[in-house]
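User: Structure with flavin-adenine dinucleotide, tokens only please.
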Amino acid sequence: MAKTIKNWGGTVVFNPKFVRYPTSHEEVVEIVKTARQNHQQVRIIGSGHSWTPLVNTNYILVSLDQYQGVETLDKANCTAVVKAGTKLKLLGELLHAEGLAMENMGDINVQSIAGALSTGTHGTGVKFGTLATQMLEITFVNGLGETVVCSEHTNREIFKAAQISLGALGIITKIKLRLVPTFKLKYVSAKADLDDTLLNLDKYKQENRNFEFYWFPHTKTVQLKLVNKTPEPPKNVGFAKKFNDVVMENGLFGFLSRISRAFPKVAPRISKISAWGVSKGTYINHSHLIFATQRLVRFYEMEYNIPQESFINVIKEIETCVNEHQFKVHFPIECRWVKADDIMISPASGRDSAYIAIHMYKGMEYKSYFDAIEQIFRKYNGRPHYGKMNTLKQTDFAELYPNWQKFMDIRQQMDPDKMFLNEYLQELFVQNALQES
Ligand SMILES: Cc1cc2nc3c(=O)[nH]c(=O)nc-3n(C[C@H](O)[C@H](O)[C@H](O)COP(=O)(O)OP(=O)(O)OC[C@H]3O[C@@H](n4cnc5c(N)ncnc54)[C@H](O)[C@@H]3O)c2cc1C
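Assistant:
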């Protein structure tokens, strides 16, 4: 019987005819070759944490959940070849045991490494690129069943396309990562005023290794997250951190969110209560444990990358828009920074960037809010996070990315039969897809 698959946000539900769990690169090659002979569509899923319809298919879904772990490790040069299905949590633990770590991560650790890299997942910090900039070499199986190995030195154009490729070039099986020696981070959570934060933005960004803030709409309150390297011993890592993560940031916030969903009119007041209750504290632990937070409250999310220099104007326009429309939203707006890269269709390609993410509690009306804010993002040449909700079409992407056509050409070369394209990806990557269908 066909298995029903649902993504984390509940925005994508589908019934693939077959779900395959290969345990080796060779098995992946076999799956692709057989599917090609039989003209069957194949999609690849990581942990299903994207909101956009990237992984859905009615035919073959490939999961690398049974292909996890570190294959080889080079401690002297701080590199590792990892199996593409490895979940970030496991990866963090395996690397830590060997004295290594990823230099930067996003704010959860349940994604697969290939899934996270393939959508341009990022953390924060002006000195760090998206996670895909940590890739040194990629091995994937293309739509012809061929094994392609690419890096900065071998098949460079293909590498620059494959680093962020939404599973549209093939199935990534192995990734060589650039790592750093294990390190500890001190995370300070503090409350501040939005206007003061904007005034001191450059200082915060430059003086902290990983800086971000959450702004509570309908208020002037922000939660600052100031994260820096430290030699100090772990602090507040046991009960205190768990209490903050599970009870304050999830339990209590989940309770307030349910009230907001039942009575949307009170959402602005709930945002004010959440702002009032911003948790202050200092936590010290190994990097992979500090980066990762728990997200037990489900929500919808839209996140755009904008040029760093437009950040203050965009935030001010969002503030005016929220106040004018009085949107029924209580989720904070998350603001992060990422260094420019040279990956073909990376949202941060060619520009130092800020990322602004807006959220709505699952089950609440989100469209009017997301549409209004998306217009502001677009006015400032915003580029959406590929895994998060947006309304852009191929023509919009082609305007935003000078190399969109080049990516489409490489995709065509890697998968001429469009085996890896579902309807959504056809629309993004195949010229005249709308007329063809
Ligand atoms: C609660 C939550 C918190 C988040 N936090 C952040 C954050 O801090 N920063 C951020 O930038 N994003 C964040 N995201 C977004 C998330 O990181 C991305 O959507 C990411 O792609 C999800 O990884 P996944 O393993 O679930 O991949 P999926 O969502 O399952 O897949 C994503 C894409 O990767 C492709 N893919 C997966 N495996 C392979 C493979 N082996 N070969 C080729 N293609 C493959 C899929 O086909 C698909 O196109 C968050 C999402 C959630 C739900």
